[in-house]
Amino acid sequence: xxxxxxxxxxxxxxxxxxxxxxxxxxxxxxxxxxxxxxxxxxxxxxxxxxxxxxxxxxxxxxxxxxxxxxxxxxxxxxxxxxxxxxxxxxxxxxxxxxxxxxxxxxxxxxxxxxxxxxxxxxxxxxxxxxxxxxxxxxxxxxx
Length: 143
Description:
The chain has 143 residues and is of the alpha+beta class. The chain has two helices and five strands; from the N terminus they run E-E-E-E-H-H-E. The protein has a five-stranded antiparallel beta sheet, with no helix packed on it. The longest helix has 29 residues, at 101-129.
């Protein structure tokens, strides 16, 4: 997966970049007719992150970032699918203890949210420790 960014600062072999997160509606031909545009769907947000800089980009350069597809898919699975699997497993395991249905539901919901938090925390730590996103190309150099 690639994305354009602008280098804010450089420190050794790493660079801090600003990425403009565009909405999913940006590429849609029907976006002017969509009710979702009124719900803030069109807003752009800035994301600042630190990435590897093997090409030697400088401050102000516009660059292309690359993220391994396997990393994107693994993170998506961990954040969106794994908590649901954990919730289902906890529901069935709690059902074995013959608890009241209401208690089972409450504990399952708690397991879902706790697992979401723990998984996101662990992924955040891993991503900060081992940066896999890197600059692969300089589009426009700042003079």
